[in-house]
Design brief:
This protein is mainly α. It has 13 helices and four strands. It has a two-stranded antiparallel ribbon with strand order 1-2. Strands 3-4 form a two-stranded antiparallel ribbon. Helix 2 (72-82) crosses helix 6 (149-171), helix 3 packs across helix 6 and helix 8 crosses helix 12.
């Protein structure tokens, strides 16, 4: 929803199960929803042979490559309607079928051509589209709607055009607005406060944030240095379009781990339970479980070098909240609970910066919910990474003070759209802000936010062979 920067819109879900429920009961996704704003600017996924790195695509694992439509964002838009864990259509043609009766059908045909939705659907199409994808009655078929070759081609075209339409909206100023305090600062129309400016310089220096979340300036500031140059990019996206494994612990709150039994139509969301490991880009390059087909067979050999890596999202709108819940940070004022990173383990921007700052300083060989006595999880104890391979070592022990962490948070808040002009539809939140009392609740602070909802990780079985045993296998092996 717009009020959350087009990310997870329900505070209680962000606090607990993390992965959002789908249209089929008892199904949920496996990761936090990424923000849609600025996603259209990611390029088609490519492998840079000189650097040995992947850049582009959409989704946490970059599986929306953009190979077919030449737009990763358009291909990302195509996925949720047919994702078994989300909207759950059993056939991509269901999108075209629904459009034939949509109120905006005339507008769609105005853009994509008269007659583009003239498809002869069989009488049982409604019943098929009302049945969740993955149902045993379909016997694994991804095209249960019986269409002629001509109509199947037309339905595929509609599916592509629908994705391109969503991409056009997300690329517009309705979503990707470039209307933040930082944009005004670049235009010389806003002066950053002392804390915001200090956070900006830390972002580009000691915090090393700018090495991935590029802002159009250098990233080599040393103590007492100040960058007075003009920005090389006047609309920076605060991403390098690449991927990284930041070493997040496994989050046992993720609903995906518990979808181990057949549902009412015989579908099992996660037959591996806690044997599932999210290898991110590595799983996609292997065309593995829960991802998508890798369109370039030559990339598969690189899978072990990217296991655990997730896309570097834009930092823009990371702090966006509804007006009545003016912050993401717990404390004496009402706040909007968000979930950060791919598995939602981090619950505040303060925790996010503290994790980058102290991940290695306070590392313990335990899983979440089992930090040693005398430590506080997410404050003086970081459980071990879910995937220990390919961890980004440019962060983890930055030496930032508590004040400096807070200053980086202050800078991140300047990236929220809606400062130079109102952000469209940001006032649509009808839920309830979260509140807590710092004098009675030890977890009512940005540092310990969400700790009251921690649950102990159960004993973990070995990584399922269907994930960690697919060639080329992870190196070193993932337990």
């Amino acid at each position: 929803m717009p009020y959350a920067g087009f990310s997870g819109p329900i505070p209680s879900v962000n606090l607990t199960m993390v992965a959002y429920p789908g249209t089929a009961h008892f199904r949920a996704g496996k990761r936090t929803p990424q923000r849609h704003a600025y996603a259209p600017f990611f390029p088609v996924l490519q492998y840079n042979q000189t650097q040995g790195l992947f850049f582009g695509g959409n989704f946490w694992d970059s599986r929306a490559t953009g190979f077919l439509l030449r737009s990763p964002d358009a291909e990302q838009a195509q996925s949720p309607p047919v994702d078994t864990q989300e909207m759950g259509f059993p056939d991509t043609a269901c999108v075209a079928f629904r459009l034939t009766t949509a109120a905006y059908r005339p507008l769609f045909e105005l853009v994509w051509g008269a007659g583009s939705l003239d498809i002869k659907f069989p009488r049982n199409t409604e019943a098929i589209c009302d049945t969740p994808g993955g149902a045993s009655r379909f016997h694994g078929s991804a095209t249960p709607i019986d269409l002629t070759p001509e109509d199947r081609t037309k339905a595929n075209d509609v599916y592509g055009h629908w994705g391109q339409s969503v991409d056009s909206y997300e690329q517009s100023v309705q979503v990707s607005a470039f209307s933040s305090k930082f944009d005004a600062f670049l235009a010389g129309k806003y002066k950053l406060t002392a804390d915001e400016m200090a956070g900006f310089e830390l972002f580009n220096g000691k915090g090393n944030c700018n090495s991935c979340h590029l802002d159009g300036r250098g990233t080599t500031l040393k103590p007492n240095q100040h960058d007075t140059s003009s920005a090389a990019t006047v609309n920076p996206l605060f991403t390098c379009f690449g991927s990284a494994n930041e070493g997040l612990p496994l989050n046992p709150r993720n609903a995906f781990y518990y979808q181990t039994m057949p549902d009412s139509v015989g579908f099992i969301g996660n037959p591996y339970g806690f044997g599932y490991r999210d290898l991110g880009l590595g799983t996609f390059l292997r065309s593995g479980f829960g991802s998508g087909p890798n369109p370039n067979s030559s990339w598969k050999q690189s899978a072990p070098s990217v296991d655990g890596q997730m896309q570097v999202s834009s930092a823009r709108d990371v702090a966006m909240t509804p007006a009545q819940c003016p912050t993401t940070e717990a404390g004496s004022t009402p706040y909007f609970q968000k979930a950060f990173f791919h598995n939602g383990y981090i619950k505040s921007l303060k925790q996010l910066v503290h994790f980058y700052n102290t991940r290695d300083k306070f590392a313990y060989p335990v899983t979440s919910g089992h930090c040693p006595p005398g430590t506080v999880e997410k404050v003086t104890c970081w459980p071990m990474p879910e995937v220990k391979n390919n961890i980004d070592m440019t962060t983890g022990n930055l030496g930032l003070t508590d004040k400096e962490e807070n200053q980086i948070v202050a800078f991140l808040q300047t990236l929220t759209d809606g400062f130079t002009r109102p952000y469209p539809n940001v006032d649509t939140f009808t839920g309830t802000c979260m509140t807590c009392n710092p004098t009675t609740d030890p977890n009512c602070s940005p540092s310990r936010q969400g700790n009251g909802s921690l649950i102990p990780t159960p004993p973990l079985p070995s990584c399922a062979s269907a994930i960690c045993g697919v060639t080329p296998v992870p190196s070193p092996p993932i337990p």
